[in-house]
Amino acid sequence: MFGLIEAKNIAFGVKGKQILHPVNFTTDREEFIVILGPNGAGKSTLVKLLSNGLKPGSGSISYYGKELKEWAPGDLAKYRAYMHQESMIASSFTVREVLEMARYRYPEIKSQFNKTVIEKIANELNLLALLDVEFNFLSGGEKQRVQFGRVLLQLESEGEIQPIKYLFLDEPLNNLDVRYQIELLKHARKFVDDKHGSVIVVMHDINLCYQYADRVLLMQKGKVIRDGSVHEVMIPELLSQTYQIELEQIQSFDGEVFYRHLSYTSNLLDNTLIK
Ligand SMILES: Nc1ncnc2c1ncn2[C@@H]1O[C@H](COP(=O)(O)OP(=O)(O)OP(=O)(O)O)[C@@H](O)[C@H]1O
């Protein structure tokens, strides 16, 4: 069976600097995938390449067996949405207009279905009171919630049978307070559990990653150094080496697992675990 997203040997460089070394990536089911790794590891670059925000220097990417370059942008927009780190909108649109723009690819833009889904998502993300406010006047966290609503809305469509869709989120927890961090992750988890599709998210919080991920891609220096379940990837020694900080995994009496920092280390750990 072919992967629903299949990336073969994708690599990216700028002016002779290799930013992403060749990566193979396949996903063929609904899964919550976290891309984890230190600053500058290449996480955003990988997400941009996989979501068609950036063209690979070499290698190829296909969705549902069809190469990305063969997709019409309007069609692709219905199957994958990308929430990037920067939250700027050039003109003075209201929140409602920003959300309506997410429905641009659906010809029935002013239809009852569009109105219903906008109200539903705005309600679920606690945005109803902000609908008539200008987007650029919102706080950082409010903007993040609107942007999350925008990508969810981009993928909403009518019909009983839906293909697996892809939600790419680059550091969506930035600026969110703890309540909204959890709410966003629960929403994203529900997107996967309700079989709408897969979430591929860049995030830095290793404890939240452990709680929510089905699969983790651990990156370092432009390479994916481990790809597997949380149990296969989130090994304290491997994380400690990757981040150059000593981390230990604690299991509470009721079985809850979390990571904590022991003490700062730079060259204390050997590198034998990194494959
Ligand atoms: N267009 C570009 N030109 C030059 N260097 C770039 C470009 N894009 C990315 N880089 C560099 O490539 C490296 C990887 O960047 P990337 O944004 O993918 O990292 P990241 O893992 O997402 O980092 P962070 O956790 O800090 O957001 C960084 O050193 C960055 O400066």
TrEMBL record:
Keywords: ATP-binding, Nucleotide-binding, Translocase, Transport
SUPFAM superfamilies: P-loop containing nucleoside triphosphate hydrolases
Domain of life: Bacteria
ABC transporter domain: residues covered: 5-246
InterPro entries linked: AAA+_ATPase, ABC_transporter-like_ATP-bd, ABC_transporter-like_CS, P-loop_NTPase
Entry annotated with the keyword S-adenosyl-L-methionine: no
SMART domains referenced in this protein's UniProt entry, alphabetically: AAA
A GO molecular-function descriptor: ATP binding
Entry-linked Gene3D superfamilies: P-loop containing nucleotide triphosphate hydrolases
Function: Part of the ABC transporter complex HmuTUV involved in hemin import. Responsible for energy coupling to the transport system.
Protein name: ATP-binding cassette domain-containing protein
The species this protein was found in: Fluviicola chungangensis
